[in-house]
Design a protein that fits this description.
22% helix; single chain; Alpha-D-Glucose-1,6-Bisphosphate, Chain A, domain 4; 4-stranded mixed sheet; 5-stranded mixed sheet; 193 residues; 2 domains; 41% strand; alpha+beta
Length: 193
């Protein structure tokens, strides 16, 4: 089978903290996702593994999405599947945000971001890549810490009691929000087209 890669930069509005929060949940849902796909019309099959990063620029959030594909080399088919998948994940993100709990809002200067060793990484802590200190592995190789106490914020107990915790920097503040864990996805899909 042929293995090949492709990628996209997908723009989301980020003019409010809630818009940024929604984009971060979508990033969390797609990062690390894998699908086995069979196109209904042609019978073409492929496996796709996604990795996601992000950046922000003047009120616009950019999801940097990479796909490693094994199988038929059809960029249009993979893009169509990816667009369909992102639409579904956007709906799921909105549902999860309907169940959010706002944990705290802090001045941005009260937090610092530090690299952490691999055994202290938390996959359930979602922080934008642009907050990572130099040299940190993204998305999980760094955490936010309280400047005054030096303790992780949110702490492990908070992370353990929620499905996902998001750190959302916006307008000189950082909002910390919890959402339920996403549902497990069926990773076998039929694709129209």
């Amino acid at each position: 089978m042929t293995t090949w890669s492709t990628g996209w930069a997908i723009e989301f509005p980020a003019t409010t903290a809630d818009e940024l929060l929604l984009a971060l949940v979508v990033r969390d849902l797609i990062h690390g996702a894998s699908y086995d796909v069979e196109a209904e019309e042609t019978g073409d099959e492929f496996e796709v593994d996604y990795t996601a990063g992000d950046e922000i620029d003047d009120g616009s959030y950019r999801l940097l999405l990479a796909a490693e594909v094994e199988g038929v080399e059809d960029a249009e088919l993979v893009q169509s599947f990816t667009e369909h998948t992102l639409e579904e994940l956007l709906d799921e993100a909105e549902e999860l945000l309907g169940q959010r709990t706002r944990l705290t809002t802090l001045p941005a200067v009260s937090l610092e971001f530090r690299t952490v060793p691999e055994d202290e990484e938390r996959w359930d802590l979602i922080v934008p890549d642009w907050m990572a200190p130099d040299g940190a592995e993204v998305p999980f190789g760094f955490r936010s810490f309280d400047v005054a106490s030096g303790e992780p914020l949110p702490d492990d107990a908070t992370l353990d009691s929620h499905g996902r915790v998001l750190v959302v920097p916006f307008g000189g503040e950082v909002e910390i929000v919890a959402i339920p864990a996403p549902a497990d996805h069926d990773d076998t899909c039929d694709q129209d087209g």
